[in-house]
Amino acid sequence: MTPTPLIDRPPVPDTSSEPYNDSALNRYSTLLAIKLLGSFRPRRGGVLMLTDQLCVKYGWDVHLSEASTLRFVAQHTTIPVPRVFCAFTRRNCTYIVMERIKGEVIGRGWVRRSEESKARLLSKLRRMIEELRQIPAPKNIGIASVDAGPLYDCRVPGPTIRFGPFKSMQDFHRHLRTGMDFDPELDHEVQELMRQHKKEWPLVFTHGDLSSLNVMVREDDVVGIIDWETSGWYPSYWEYTTACQVNPQNSFWADEIDKFLTPMPEELAMEHLRQKYFGLF
Fold it and tell me: Residues annotated as region Disordered (predicted)?
């Protein structure tokens, strides 16, 4: 018997994260800037570049927890992340006004870089991720966002676009299997996946999407890590297995991941098996 994943994924309201600097003036200024500049200023995905120093990320799928994460990482590490100026929700649309980091994505011109330049950048990136993973987990936290609320990752199956939080790792793994528990009629591979899912891993703070598009550089310096929407407290393998889900347009990055993250081949094989039966790709 082969399971069928759920595909209906509407957004769900969540109040676990609070607005930041949510004054009437900040709300008005943000909405006015989008109205005046939105038609001609450059965009990067859901981010509108307001000026050379400011940008705003907004949309129905943007969440206040990302603003909380940026502030949390800035407070607990030396990792360069965009400074948040304000964050609020209006009519089910969330707006995060933040610093625009000056630099280019690490993938731009990567093949033209010298091996020494690549090594310097990846070494710096590795130290940053190690620092992130050393943040102590709060007492009694489960698999959850920085605010102990729901998580977001469009690559994870489920009935809604956000999921969790989960009190235990077993609850999280059950969600990854769309709620499926052991049944002797299941395929042998699915039974093996369930056995692997019974293991326990340390809980670490995780970016969740360390692609070549989310690391900003200038020359041989890493000047920013951006797009923290998929971040949260996850099993220690999650950073590696999500990073290995490389966009086909940036396939070169697959050869670099093991240079800034500790390889976890058994967990990667486990995730490939999970995606085979329960993924949405």
Answer: 1-21
